[in-house]
Design brief:
697 residues, alpha/beta, Ubiquitin-like (UB roll), Hect, E3 ligase catalytic domain fold, 11% strand, elongated
Length: 697
C-alpha cells in the first residue's frame, strides 16, 4: 500500500493515477518512474475510532463554506411590485352609504401608488365595465369602506400610500376594497349625518361636581327639557331655581356656556358642509333650503325630537324655491355633448330590439347626441341626417310600445304599474327601459305621462314607504283584483275562515305574507291594504329596482328625488295637456308683405287653419290635435324642452292641395288653393292620417 502524493489517499502501488483526486503518481525527479510514498502512520490510516476533537479538525479541513448561499434581506420590500386590490361603487340610499353588490372589480396596481394614482386606476377600471353609468372623474370621490375620503392614512397624518395603508390595515391586498362615490351622494350623506347630530345632541345638563352639590343638580334635572340647539341663534332660556344660592347661579352659567359651545359647533359643522357642497356640486341649493327649513322648525319646537321630526318633507317647500319644469330639464340637457353622436339604426317593426343594440354597445355614452336613422325593408335609410325629427318620432313610438304594448307594464292607460316578467328581468329590459325614458327626457323627446302615482312614490321614496288604498285598484282589470276585493264583503269575524275556504285568496295571502288573526275592522283593512300593496308594487320590487337603475343615467333619478313635484307632472297622468290654446301658443307664422295679394290669400287660409284646430280638439273630424302635432314634429305632445312651430304657405306650388311638413325644423306648409273650408279640412285630414312616419310625409 502507498499514499497519494496530493491528497494522501491510500493507493495500491500499481496505481499510476489517484482515483480520488486524479493526480499522476509520477515523481518530479525527472526519472519518469513512479515513486509512491509509503502510507504514513496517521489518523487517516489507523483503524481506531476518531475522538470528537480529531473529528472536528478533520471536518474543518473541508471547504463547506464554498457551497453556502449568500443570505438575502428578506425584510426588504419591492415597492414596484404589482398587487391586486378591489374597487367598487358606493351609493347613498337615503340613510347610509352602502357598497353596491356585484360591482366590485379586481384592480392591479403598484404597491407605491398614492391616492391620485389609485383614483385614476380605479376610475378607468370601473368606467371600462360600466360605461353607461359612470360620469366624469371629477364627479367622484375615492372612499374607504366606512365612507371616509381617502386622503391620509387612518392612524397618522401621512399622505396615503397603498403599501403603508396595508401595513396599518393588517390584511392581505386581496381583501382591501376601495370605493368610488358621487360627490353629491357623499354630501347628502354628510348633511344627513349633521342633521342627526343636531337632533340627537345630548341635553345640556350639569353633572355632579361633588356630593354637597347633588341636591342642586337634582333640582336642575327636574326642569322642563330645553330647546334643541340650531343654526338659528335664539334667546337662551334661563332656568329658574327655587334656591338662589351661589351653587345654582354657577350651574346656570355652566349650562349657558355649554349650550353656547354646542350651538357654535353645530354652526361650524353646517358651514363646513355648506362650503363642501358649494365647492364640489353645482345646482344643489334645494337640498340646503330643505335643511334650513328643518332647522328653523327645530328652533321653535319646544317638544323632544321624534322620528317624525327628522323625516324630510317635500310637501312643505316654498313655491319660490321649486324651479319650473323647463328649468330642471334644461339643466339636465346641458350634459349633452353635441360634438359626438350615438347612432340608433332603427327598424320600425323592431323598435326595442334596435334600441337595445345601441344601448349595449361597449362605447355607448348617454351624454352623446342621439342620432336616429330609420331603415326601410331593403336596408336603406329613410332620411339623411337626424336634425331632431327622427329622434322625436323614435322616442314617441318606442315609449308608446314599451308602456302600452310590452309585458313590462300593466294597468289602466292613465295609471301604469310595473309587472314582473322573468325573461325581461333576466335580460335587464327594465333597466334599458329606464335608460330610454331618461334619454328621451334629456335629449328633447317625450316623457311617459302615464305612470301611476303609487309607482312614482315607489321610484322616488322606495317601495317600503308606499301606502296604497282600495281606490288604487279601481282601474285594474285582473282576476286577482276581484279575489282581493272579495274581502270587502266579509265581516271581520269571518275573514280568517273565508281565507282558508277560498283557495285562490289563500294562495295570494301566503304569497304576500299578509296573514294575521282578524278581530276588528282595522285588522281586516290592514290585510286588504297589504294584499293591494303586494299586488301593485311589492311583487315587482326587483323589477322596480332595476327600472330605477336605468333612470339613474344623466342624473334623472336624483332630480326626481330632489324635485318630486316637478317630475310628477312629467311622469304621471294629467288631463287636457294638449289644448288649442297650448297649440296656438307654440305657433309662429311666416307671412307675406302686409297689403299684398299673397297676404290676403294667407288670411283666408289661416281662418281655415284655426277652425281645423278647433274641430280636431272637439272631435269634429277623424283626427285629434296630437295627430296634427305628430305630423309636424314627430311627437304626440310637446316635450319638456319645448318646440317652436313655424307655419308657412305653399305660394310656389299653387297646384298642391295637401300640406307639407319638415319634422326636423318643425315647419308646416299650408296649401293655398282651397276656396272652401270643407275641401281644406278633407285634404288636411287625408294627408295627416296617411303620412305617419319620418320620410313618409
Amino acid at each position: 500500500m502507498a499514499a497519494c502524493l496530493s491528497c494522501s489517499a491510500e493507493l495500491l502501488t500499481s496505481y499510476k493515477f489517484c482515483p480520488r483526486c486524479g493526480q499522476s503518481q509520477k515523481s518530479n525527479d525527472g526519472a519518469g518512474t513512479s515513486k509512491l510514498t509509503p502510507t504514513p502512520t496517521t489518523k487517516r490510516s489507523s483503524n481506531k475510532t476518531l475522538g470528537y476533537k480529531q473529528f472536528k479538525e478533520l471536518k474543518g479541513e473541508k471547504p463547506a463554506t464554498y457551497f453556502r448561499r449568500e443570505k438575502k434581506n428578506r425584510n426588504a420590500e419591492c415597492l414596484d411590485e404589482k398587487v391586486t386590490v378591489n374597487v367598487g361603487f358606493m351609493k347613498y340610499d337615503g340613510v347610509d352609504m352602502k357598497g353596491q353588490r356585484g360591482k366590485s372589480l379586481p384592480l392591479t396596481i403598484a404597491k407605491s401608488s398614492d391616492r391620485k394614482e389609485l383614483m385614476d386606476a380605479a376610475f378607468g377600471k370601473l368606467k371600462a365595465h360600466n360605461m353607461a353609468e359612470i360620469k366624469s372623474i371629477g364627479d367622484y370621490e375615492l372612499l374607504y369602506s366606512d365612507a371616509t375620503v381617502v386622503e391620509k392614512l387612518r392612524e397618522s397624518d401621512e399622505p396615503f400610500v397603498l403599501h403603508k395603508y396595508k401595513k396599518e390595515y393588517g390584511k392581505p391586498y386581496s381583501r382591501i376594497t376601495f370605493y368610488l362615490s358621487l360627490k353629491t351622494d357623499l354630501i347628502n350623506y354628510k348633511l344627513t349625518s349633521l342633521k342627526k347630530g343636531i337632533y340627537s345632541s345630548p341635553s345640556c345638563e350639569s353633572q355632579d361636581e361633588s356630593d354637597s352639590e347633588g341636591s342642586q343638580s337634582k333640582k336642575l334635572k327636574t326642569e322642563p327639557k330645553r330647546r334643541k340647539p340650531s343654526m338659528v341663534k335664539t334667546q337662551k332660556p334661563v332656568i329658574q331655581v327655587v334656591d338662589s344660592s351661589p351653587v345654582s347661579t354657577s350651574s346656570n352659567t355652566e349650562l349657558e356656556q355649554t349650550e353656547s359651545k354646542q350651538t357654535e359647533q353645530i354652526e361650524t359643522d353646517a358651514a363646513i358642509a355648506l362650503a363642501l357642497q358649494m365647492e364640489n356640486v353645482d345646482n344643489t341649493y334645494a337640498a340646503l333650503f330643505t335643511i334650513d327649513d328643518q332647522l328653523e322648525e327645530l328652533s321653535t319646537n319646544e317638544e323632544t325630537c321624534s322620528d317624525d321630526a327628522v323625516e324630510m318633507s317635500t310637501s312643505g317647500k316654498d313655491d319660490a324655491q321649486t324651479p319650473t319644469i323647463e328649468a330642471v330639464v334644461t339643466e339636465l340637457a346641458q350634459q349633452v355633448d353635441f360634438s359626438n353622436i350615438t347612432k340608433f339604426n332603427v327598424v320600425r317593426t323592431h323598435l326595442f330590439d334596435s334600441a337595445k343594440r345601441a344601448l349595449n354597445r361597449k362605447k355607448f355614452d348617454p351624454c352623446h347626441k342621439v342620432s336616429v336613422k330609420f331603415m326601410d325593408d331593403v336596408g336603406s335609410s329613410e332620411g339623411a341626417v337626424d336634425l331632431g325629427g327622427p329622434k322625436r318620432e323614435f322616442f314617441t313610438l318606442l315609449l308608446h310600445s314599451l308602456l302600452y304594448e310590452s309585458p313590462l307594464f300593466f294597468g289602466h292607460d292613465n295609471s301604469r304599474y310595473i309587472s314582473l316578467n322573468q325573461k325581461s328581468f333576466e335580460e335587464e329590459e327594465y333597466r334599458l327601459t329606464g335608460m330610454l325614458i331618461a334619454l328621451s327626457l334629456v335629449h328633447g323627446g317625450p316623457v311617459p305621462h302615464c305612470l301611476s302615482n303609487l309607482l312614482f312614490q315607489a321610484l322616488v321614496g322606495g317601495v317600503q314607504g308606499v301606502k296604497p288604498t282600495v281606490a288604487d285598484m279601481e282601474n285594474i282589470h285582473d282576476a286577482t283584483k276581484d279575489v282581493i276585493l272579495s274581502l270587502n264583503d266579509v265581516t271581520p269575524e269571518n275573514v280568517n275562515t273565508f281565507i282558508d275556504s277560498n283557495e285562490r285568496l289563500s294562495t295570494v295571502v301566503d304569497l304576500a305574507g299578509a296573514w294575521k288573526p282578524v278581530k276588528t275592522s282595522e285588522d281586516k283593512l290592514s290585510i286588504t291594504n297589504s294584499l293591494i300593496k303586494w299586488f301593485l308594487v311589492s311583487r315587482s320590487q326587483c323589477a322596480i329596482l332595476q327600472f330605477q337603475k336605468g333612470l339613474e343615467i344623466l342624473g334623472v333619478l336624483d332630480k326626481m328625488r330632489q324635485f318630486p313635484g316637478v317630475f310628477r307632472q312629467l311622469m304621471c297622468y294629467s288631463p287636457n295637456r294638449l289644448t288649442v290654446e297650448c297649440f296656438e301658443a307654440k305657433l309662429s307664422y311666416d307671412r307675406s308683405e302686409m297689403g299684398s295679394n299673397s297676404f290676403q290669400v294667407e288670411n283666408a287660409v289661416l281662418g281655415f287653419w284655426g277652425d281645423f284646430l278647433v274641430d280636431a280638439s272637439e272631435g269634429e273630424c277623424q283626427l285629434e290635435l296630437k295627430d296634427v302635432l305628430m305630423f309636424i314634429s314627430g311627437c304626440l305632445e310637446f316635450p319638456p324642452l319645448g318646440l317652436e312651430i313655424t307655419v308657412k304657405f305653399l305660394h310656389g306650388e299653387r297646384g298642391c292641395k295637401f300640406p307639407k311638413a319638415n319634422t326636423c325644423a318643425c315647419e308646416l306648409s299650408l296649401p293655398i288653393q282651397h276656396t272652401t273650408y270643407a275641401s281644406f279640412k278633407d285634404d288636411m285630414t287625408f294627408a295627416i292620417l296617411n303620412s305617419k312616419g319620418f320620410g313618409q310625409t
